[in-house]
Amino acid sequence: MQAAASQGLTYTVFRTLDATTKSEITCTWRELCAKLREPKVHPSKVAMPLMKGATFGDVRDPESGSLRTDGNMLLVSFIEADIDNKVAAALGALVTVDDVETRLRDAGIEALLFTTGSHAPDRHRIRVLAPLSTPCPPADRAGYVATLNGALGGILETESFTASQSFYFGRVAGVPFEARHVAGGFINEDLFIVPVDARPTPRPARQQQADDDLADLSPPIDDETMAEIAAAAKALSPHRFGEESHDDYMRVFWALRHAAACGRSTEARDLMQALTEAHGTDAKKREFARKWEREKPTRASHFKVLFDLATDDGWVNPRKAPTPESVVERLRKMSRDEVLHEWAPLAAAMPKDCAADVLAAVHQLTAIGKRDLANRLKDARRDVNRTRRVQAVGSRKLLVYQPENSVAQATEVGALILESAPPGALVNHAGRPARIVEAYQPNAHQIDDADAPPPMTMVVEGHTQASMRAEVESVAVFHVVREADMIPVAVPVLTLEALLELDAAQAPPISGVLSHPIVRIDGSILAANGIDSRTGLFAHGITGGDTLRPYSQQEAESARLWLETEALVGFEFASKLNAHIALAGLLTAVQRRLMDTAPGLAILAPAQASGKTTLARRFHLFLTGRDMPVVTLPVGNDPEIGKLLLSLLQSSPPMICFDNISDGLVVHGGPLNAAMTSPTFEGRILGSTKTLTVPTNTFFVVTGNNLRLGSDEVTRLLTTTLAPAHARPEERRFRQPDVVAHALSIRDRVLRDVVGIVAGYLTSGDRVPLATGSRFNRWDRMVRQPLVWAGADDVAKSFEINGSEAEHVQALRSLLLVLHEEFADERFSARQVCDLVAHFDQTRAHLVHDALEALAVRDVRSPRGVGKALQGCLNRAVEVDGATLSLRASIDRNGTSAYGITKCGVCGV
Length: 909
Description:
This protein is of the alpha+beta class.
């Protein structure tokens, strides 16, 4: 069962029914189950995205442009099956969620089942997903569907066997939802014996007869009934044919298709075509042309469905409507009080001229004035209309728009969203209303393809008017009152502005999004999904919390050794210390959400294809279970770096990878340094005068070949160096060639060991003495000390190595060496240093020139600029060939600074 939970898989999401664009998502089976058990709520079924447990190529259908075709399928990761109870009804055995769960459990099949957007208590609509142990070609899929069908008793709908058939996923507002997980074995492994047949289950003979000749089961429709059908169809509200009313559209379609099968083929087709052309979307027009002749109605279809739909839209069937005479005759048999109670509701459903006749008769029967009776009739009509509106609203709350109380009404709506919407639909991040969604990380791209969209991840997305309107529409319907009738209106702009600008919803504040367990500063473990009140973190998709615990020191050492050999398998580090620094990077990534400041990680190498990006990618997979987006860092352009960081940090990513910085560059970035040493980052929103302050609790990674660190970066970035032993590192192969699958397969163990080490140290009472502190106090306690406690080297040595190898230190070393060779014990001025550049031989002149430029001297011919740089180098010692050199200064008799070189404690000033 554990193997099934950690099984890595890739599936495809189509955002629209036409499937002209696609997104591939990689995760574990456990994470997919967690996502589908608590899905996002959508206003309607067609507003939901579609899912397919397979990958697709880029070959489009020549007519529709769709990517979702049988021929374009590549590999299948899990199978989907639909149970609409049509086949089950024909077999005489309707099934419920309980029945399906029992049958899956009896067969021992690992699966997730959940109700769909068309589900109702008396109309069970169920979807089943079953993972495969290894991806299979599309040709094998039908056999596994048939295996599942046999285990379930042959109740799957035929569309389950269609190779590229995709299915809506999510939850429809107001529709009851239920999801259940069944633990078992993979359906493509020989764990159980059921009949396997690659063909769809044949329909019973009586069902086949219904399809072939429905007229045998329903009498032909006469002219009067056909006229009644046409009147009802023309009275339907146009919204039933809109983009978000697919279910209603199909109910009309099947009702008229039934009428066509009952001898009214031409009239029914023309009527459906006219309705679709008048009110339908382009997609529905294509659907009509494709399905009308091909699809056949079943016994569940009936033209009388049209009458129910039209009645809900206010249509009165003239053949069944009461006449004034019948109503008056009924009233004459009642007492006066009964007449006053009954007459108005009866007349309210009648045409105005008929209702007037009833009113006149009631006036004679009760002797009540006609004006009073007219007011009662008006009130009854309003109640009828209101009842219809409320029925259309369903579970949503009916609100009368109050522009004079827009803020108070927005507060009420916000409370409804927080009460009814799923977790993450409305939160407060960085002082703005936001939501947690699966989306692209902004300003990112795929690894090795800067033009391709990045993998989708869970991000914090600031609410816009459009997204907030969708949330409001899922919980409330606004009306205005006109002439005693309630007229529905769109969500008022004032309400949206109040929700967005004033945060009237009182959304719960969050400090970040978390998809893995984490250890609090007191050693307690956070592994529960939802908003954690102590930390403000919004946790989602975390599983296996009951297996997490603090480790003893001996267990921690064993876990650290396992992490070195398995989590870092295949990477050739320049030294053991570099491997421990990489391990510190992993712990920092896991704990970063709870550290106000923390160092980033620089992954360096001398050549391409050394595994830098792969190592960063593995860290991201451990953190999120998803593939890594990467970002291009505009080195040297601080304003652009600031804009980029603000855009990225708004989405609260757990990790940001600035990948493949150009070879040999010096990593400078003032805004990036500020983000690593400050708990917040502030910037101005583009196109606005407003500033935004966002948390910086994100793990930063930079990768590149032969990079050098600037003077500010040496104490902010841990540096680990890869040094492949192969002459051609691009030709070597990892022991586990599928990096993604391997990382996902060990993710649970990696996180369990990281949490165990950190929690073990924090709760042990031990205190590891450190030779020196770092600028990151909480990081020292939550990462550096636990690793030393578990037997690793002190990774803060990385900062010392960075300092000795930094560009400004190298520049100072070169400069002092040349100056000592030239002046020895003599004093010199800044002007003399400038003259050296002009009079030295070319090699030595270049050394001084480059050194001064590296020390931020803009013009090496300017004594003032050179003097400023020399002042900044005073008393800074460097090692040169075993000796120590440093720069000293004094003031000569002319008031000018005179400099000298101290070597091994001997001063030349």
